[in-house]
């Protein structure tokens, strides 16, 4: 899934396009400097992501220390995980399962991670270690 970087956040294509349209409109109306709008937005090497969304990048190919979601709409990018990221997800799923066992409401985001990262060993004994 393609992603864009803007002001330190990660955005899906749909949300990034809305941000770009808004920035383009503001530049056209003279509300922001035209210089902030890149001449070629797809040239990611020349786009300042603090001023305009840079991308697209294939976020599902990128490893992260946690699952990545769009900063605007929350869509899950289904990114790969580092070993730290895998441990993070395992712990989150274990905690969510404990909640469910106690009759508490499950976290739908963690359930999505559990489904997507089903190759992880959520049931291993914590004392066995990584």
Give a short summary of the structure:
This protein has helices at residues 13-28, 83-101, 108-116, and strands at 2-6, 9-12, 54-58, 63-64, 80-81.
Characterization of this structure:
This protein is of the alpha+beta class and 130 residues long. The protein has two domains: 2-80, no CATH class; 83-128. It has helices at 13-28, 83-101, 108-116, and strands at 2-6, 9-12, 54-58, 63-64, 80-81. It is elongated and about 55 Å long. The two termini are 29 Å apart.
Rg over alpha carbons: 19 Å
- The rough form would be described as elongated
How many individual domains? 2
Order of helices and strands: EEHEEEHH
State the main characteristics.
130 residues, alpha+beta, three-stranded antiparallel beta sheet, two-stranded parallel ribbon, 3 helices, 34% helix, elongated
List the helices and strands and how they pair.
Layout: E1 2-6, E2 9-12, H1 13-28, E3 54-58, E4 63-64, E5 80-81, H2 83-101, H3 108-116
Parallel strand pairs: 4-5
Antiparallel strand pairs: 1-2, 1-3
Helix pairs in contact: 2-3
């Amino acid at each position: 899934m393609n992603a864009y970087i803007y002001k330190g956040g990660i955005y899906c294509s749909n949300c990034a396009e809305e941000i770009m349209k808004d920035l383009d409109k503001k530049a056209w109306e003279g509300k922001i400097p035209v210089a902030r709008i890149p001449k070629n937005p797809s040239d990611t090497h020349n786009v300042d992501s603090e001023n305009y969304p840079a991308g697209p990048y294939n976020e599902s190919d990128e490893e992260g220390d946690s699952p990545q979601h769009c900063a605007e709409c929350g869509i899950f990018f289904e990114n790969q995980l580092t070993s730290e990221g895998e441990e993070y997800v395992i712990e989150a799923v274990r905690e969510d399962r404990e909640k469910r066992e106690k009759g508490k409401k499950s976290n739908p985001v963690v359930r999505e991670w559990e489904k997507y990262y089903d190759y992880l060993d959520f049931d291993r004994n914590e004392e066995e270690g990584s």
